[in-house]
Design goal:
- The chain is mostly helical and 412 residues long.
Length: 412
């Protein structure tokens, strides 16, 4: 049997080193994991120095990175690959080395190298991740810390990967649902502008050659066309300035809060925005609690990661109530933000000790609601826009042909 030198961490996160015998490296990894340790690296005894000396050498990537940023797809794939490799008994360092050869992001490649160096220097995996807060959120760091502490890192990574994949699929579905209405709207506005700036002026020039007074509808169309031709650049500049000022305003805390309140109070859409935020909150809470993260830490992470200041403030108040010993269901009810169904399900989950499962059910309900809302919105929006644009174009056509009808009467 060969002897292998290993670096590992116990459930308290303390680094441990030693040797283990095995027929193969994988055999040694299984024996080390059986001791309740999280394997960081395993190398044949006597090759430690060569391994250390090669640590500073960059790993040559098999594929040339395609872009410089780190996208949600990059992180999702990174997490799934890491979960698969660690679950198969591959050490964390070896897993990072394998993944780094395949990443499409130059920045993520550099991050993998830095994670490897940090762990070789004695950091735990979650400590190495915490050195890159712009890439890995608090959700990542706390989940992996709980996985290291429990010895179930592969399981926790699988849950994190499932969460990232589900959220990416849901986000993609929302974006896809909104793309078609936006294209339809832009196409309609473009058609109206073309008619106003090209077709109407051409007809107006023709009508000038006839000694007739234009009908009211035609005169309105001609005046509108003249106004647009003279002021179109000014209107674009004003619109651009308005958008710029609005974006700057909502970047301030007060502006963002006012805009969010306006969103929640919108007829029909207000309920969708509310449901969308509850869906994200319940999804994160289910993942965190199921992975063994304490409820207070779970609320803190959710409050930091939610992209809504109004909800972040509500979650902070809920966390304060829970810290004081109040039931979470009661804290949700006091906030006035969550529907009675959510309050009741969370209260039942606390009573029977199945809070993660209840948050999963809440998440499924609101995700289905958002999907249904978007499907209905598109089915209603399309005919409404087509009827509106068709009606406007019809009015313009009638307005252009009215003088021709007048000329026909005079000629008859």
């Amino acid at each position: 049997m060969a002897r292998f030198y290993y670096i590992a961490r116990n459930r308290a996160g303390v680094k441990e080193t030693g040797t283990e015998e095995g027929l193969t490296q994988e055999d040694a990894v299984v024996k080390i994991q059986a001791k309740g340790l999280i394997v960081v690296n395993v190398i044949p005894e006597g090759s430690e120095s060569s391994a250390d000396s090669s640590a500073g050498n960059p790993i040559k990537a098999r594929f040339k990175p395609k872009h410089g940023r780190v996208t949600s797809e990059d992180l999702m794939l990174f997490c799934r690959q890491l979960a698969t490799l660690i679950g198969a008994g591959v050490t964390i360092l070896k897993s990072l080395e394998i993944i780094s050869k395949q990443v499409a992001s130059r920045k993520l490649y550099n991050v993998c190298m830095d994670l490897k160096k940090g762990m070789e220097a004695g950091l735990s995996f979650h400590e190495a991740l915490a050195a890159h807060p712009k890439v890995f959120s608090g959700l990542w760091i706390n989940l992996i810390e709980s996985g290291e502490a429990s010895g179930n890192l592969a399981v926790v990574l699988s849950r994190l990967a499932a969460y990232l994949e589900k959220e990416a699929a849901f986000k993609s579905k929302v974006i896809s649902a909104l793309i078609y209405p936006m294209i339809l709207t832009f196409a309609g506005v473009g058609a109206l502008l073309f008619l106003s700036l090209k077709i109407v002026p051409a007809f107006a020039e023709i009508f000038k050659g006839f000694d007739i007074s234009l009908p009211l509808l035609t005169q309105i169309l001609v005046n509108t066309s003249d106004f647009l031709k003279k002021k179109i650049m000014f209107l674009f500049l004003v619109s651009g300035a308005g958008i710029f000022i609005f974006r700057k305003y909502i970047q301030t805390k007060s502006g963002r809060l006012n805009f969010e309140k306006f969103q929640f109070k919108l007829p029909v859409f207000g309920e969708f925005f509310l449901s969308y935020n509850i869906e994200k909150f319940s999804s994160e809470m289910a993942t965190l609690l199921e992975s063994g993260v304490p409820i207070l830490y779970s609320l803190e992470i959710s409050g930091r990661s939610v992209n809504n200041l109004t909800m972040a403030d509500i979650i902070r108040k809920i966390k304060d109530d829970v810290r004081e010993g109040k039931p979470m269901g009661e804290a949700l009810e006091r906030s006035g933000f969550f529907e009675p169904m959510v309050v009741q399900m969370v209260s039942i989950g606390e009573e029977i000790g199945e809070l993660p499962q209840m948050f999963k059910r809440i998440n499924s309900f609101y995700q289905e609601y958002c999907d249904t809302f978007l499907a209905r919105f598109i089915s209603m929006f399309e005919p409404l826009v087509l009827v509106f644009i068709g009606g406007v174009i019809g009015v313009m056509v009638v307005g252009m042909f009215l003088p021709i009808f007048e000329l026909a009467k005079i000629g008859g």
